[in-house]
Write a structure and sequence with these properties.
- The chain has three helices and ten strands, in the order E-E-H-E-E-E-E-E-H-E-E-H-E.
- With 143 residues, it is an alpha+beta fold.
- Strand 3 and strand 4 form a beta hairpin.
Length: 143
């Protein structure tokens, strides 16, 4: 098993990729396989999380790029700034991991949240896409 212990945001050339869902990318200790089938153990300092595009490096100078896996997401789009702000407020009030794009919100599918937003007058669409939510206000940049 290859131990991956260093994390970089640099866009270096890589030897392999590891595709992980959001929940797995929040862990600093993880066992898995790369996309080419190599067994890896990710051992990072506590509190570090993996973002799409980051590069992990092992003791053999083997570099592995992190890819966000496609996940079941609920997507809401609106050009109404007040309605958009209300949706962000209500989701944030429930501490929902939320990806915010211009006029678009993405969160891990949840029928209760979908119904809440539909109650505000929004249409909810369901797609399978990579998920990279905002970091919380108290997120540390420890690497």
């Amino acid at each position: 098993m290859l131990k991956l212990t260093e994390l970089s945001q640099e866009a270096n050339e890589t030897d392999d990729e590891v595709t992980l869902p959001y929940d797995a990318r929040q862990k600093s200790r993880l066992l898995g396989k790369t996309d080419k089938g190599r067994e890896v153990g990710i051992f990072l300092p506590r509190g570090q999380s993996l973002k799409h595009g980051y590069v992990l490096k092992g003791h053999e100078d083997y570099r592995v790029r992190v890819k966000a896996a496609a996940e079941a997401l609920s997507i809401v789009r609106t050009g109404d700034a007040l309605l958009f702000a209300r949706a962000c407020y209500h989701l944030g009030n429930r501490h929902v991991a939320l990806q915010i794009l211009p006029g678009e919100l993405r969160y891990q599918s949840d029928h209760v949240l979908d119904q809440m937003l539909q109650g505000l007058g929004l249409t909810v669409e369901h797609l399978s896409l990579p998920f990279q939510p905002e970091h919380g206000a108290y997120h540390s940049h420890g690497h």
